Amino acid sequence: DSNEFGIFNSLWFSLGAFMQQGCDISPRSLSGRIVGGVWWFFTLIIISSYTANLAAFLTVERMVSPIESAEDLAKQTEIAYGTLDSGSTKEFFRRSKIAVYEKMWTYMKSAEPSVFTRTTAEGVARVRKSKGKFAFLLESTMNEYIEQRKPCDTMKVGGNLDSKGYGVATPKGSPLGTPVNLAVLKLSEAGVLDKLKNKWWYDKGECGPKDSGSKDKTSAL
Q: Where are the domains of the chain?
């Protein structure tokens, strides 16, 4: 039996290799086997690259959240949400007089099991284990920092709920008060504080570049 590789048989052999299905004919000469082996290796690389990129694309697609705001979170029941058991975020909801935040606080304080966590790490771990069924509300600076750290599987959703600055505490009447205020104001006006945040949050991030337009300039909830 002859095993001739004409134009049609060659195309059939190439297609079978590319689809990883094999073929009912195979080259017999040394040169034909070398060419066939090179083609098999080429198709292996192409198919593997395509599969890896497709998996990454689908993973990113699944991370697109249906929740875009606090209002979205408050009006649904599938995704639980909570805060640290103590701290500024919990106090923000407890004291808020805004209807949507009052509704969220009513849910959080009566939820079973409890949606409050002892530490930030516990809250982030709960998000990762929940498969999209738990949202952890925390200060935006910490949120953005965690988002830029491996394993890169969390993201900040929606805008900030409130805006509060950080301060340096000194004793009442301390002579350090005015110099510290002036120094912080000078650093803020010169953009040094923003540059430092961008350096340590984003430039040294572990999850790839982030759009500079989304870098908030406030230490906010």
A: 7-62, 70-214
Task: Give the Cα-Cα-Cα angle 50, 53, 54 (nearest 5 degrees).
Answer: 80
* Statement: 70-214 belongs to CATH 2.60.120.200: no
Q: How confident is the model at residue 212 (pLDDT cuts 50, 70, 90)?
A: very low
Query: Model pTM greater than 0.70?
Result: no
Q: In this model, does residue 1 exceed pLDDT 70?
A: no
